Recover the amino acids of this structure.
């Protein structure tokens, strides 16, 4: 019994140090520690939040909008340089609706385009002027 009492006595300084550390936390620290951390939205394909199934990677790659012309033919729009996409949008190159929307978003996020240019492209998108012949609209 004496041994257990001596162990409790030897732990008292450590417990006091831990209590002192806890007392130094601000209200903001306590709030942060008690909040649930934000989580990313679940994946459209597999429902995973941090880890994706191989099927998810395969499906998402298959559904990437791709360019159908020029030196970047069959490349996903998001892998093409914004300068090239801006040129393609300004010259009226034929793109599917999905590729057109993705190209506008890539160029917009790069900061290369003027608001007037973006407005013109979006008008074309709404009017469906850049849909290639033979492609069906959904």
């Amino acid at each position: 019994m004496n041994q257990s009492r001596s162990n409790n006595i030897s732990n008292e300084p450590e417990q006091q140090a831990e209590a002192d550390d806890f007392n130094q936390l601000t209200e903001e620290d306590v709030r942060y520690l008690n909040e649930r951390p934000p989580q990313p939205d679940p994946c459209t394909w597999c429902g995973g939040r941090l880890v994706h199934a191989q099927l998810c990677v395969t499906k998402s790659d298959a559904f990437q909008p791709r360019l159908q012309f020029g030196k970047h033919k069959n490349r996903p729009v998001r892998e093409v340089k914004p300068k090239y996409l801006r040129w393609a949008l300004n010259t009226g190159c034929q793109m599917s609706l999905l590729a057109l929307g993705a190209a506008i978003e890539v160029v917009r996020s790069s900061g290369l385009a003027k608001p007037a240019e973006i407005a013109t492209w979006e008008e074309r998108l709404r009017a469906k002027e850049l849909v290639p012949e033979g492609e069906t609209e959904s």
